[in-house]
Structure formats: C-alpha cells, structure tokens
Amino acid sequence: MQKAATNLSKISGKTCLYKVCDVRNPIACKAVVEYATSQYGKVDILVNGAAGNFLAEAKSLTPKGFKTVMDIDAQGTYNMCHSVYPAMCSGGGSIINISMTLHYGGEFIHASSMFNDSILI
After folding, report:
1. Which residue has the higher pLDDT, 103 or 89?
2. Phi first, then psi: what are they for 72, rounded to 5°?
3. Which string of DSSP letters, residue by residue, matches 2-61?
C-alpha cells in the first residue's frame, strides 16, 4: 500500500495517505474515519469495496466460510457506513458500494459471491 500511495502522490501532485482497516471490527472502522478527519478535516466519499469470497460449490462452503463472507461484505459495509455517518452528516458526502457481479454470469460454484449484492444501498 505504501508503494501505491507514493505512486498516486507522484501522479496526482496531492498527498495520498492510507490506513489498513479490518471492516469486520467496528472500532477499527471508527479509527480509520477518525484518522481521515484528523488529516483532511472531513470525509467526502466512502467507497465500500472490501470482499471475502470463496469460489466453491454451495455444498462445499462451510457455515464458517459463509459467515466470514457476510461479516466482511455485509457487516463490514454497515460498519463503515455507520462509522462515517457523523463525519458526513453535516457537510454531505457520497457512499459508493462496490459489489461482485458474478451472479449475472457466474456459475453455481460462486455461491458466496452471489450474496455480495445484499450490501448495496
């Protein structure tokens, strides 16, 4: 991530910072929003794009695997939206949710990916 941030800074002429966050952890989500507001004063855009996928037949996907997917995709999206709301509610902002599209043309082995659509708001 450091290399990508450095390259983006060089290309754009702007400061590019990053912070690692496990979106399954609401405290980590709040911390990353606090970091962003401490550096930039506000948050204009949140892009939810974290995903956990196991490309497996539904019969092979364990309950633990499915829970991991839902914790990252659905709960993680909620955690980030909930964390960023205070930073956006007074000045506005946009939230973009990115989801897998395997369910449009995927095969039956993409069972967990098909549930990513549940995070769209």
Report:
1. 89
2. -75, -50
3. HHHHHHHHHHHSS--------TT-HHHHHHHHHHHHHHHSS--EEEE-------B-GGGS
Residue with tokens 């974290």: 50
Integer Cα distance of 36 and 50 in angstroms: 18
Q: 33: exposed, middle or buried (C-beta count within 10 Å: 0-12, 13-18, 19+)? A: buried
Task: Tell the residue number behind the tokens 């902002």, with chain if given.
Answer: 93
pLDDT tens digits, one per residue of 31-41: 999 999 999 88
Q: Output the CA–CA distances (angstroms, integers) from residue 97 to 3, 11, 51, 108, 111, in the order listed.
A: 25, 26, 11, 24, 20
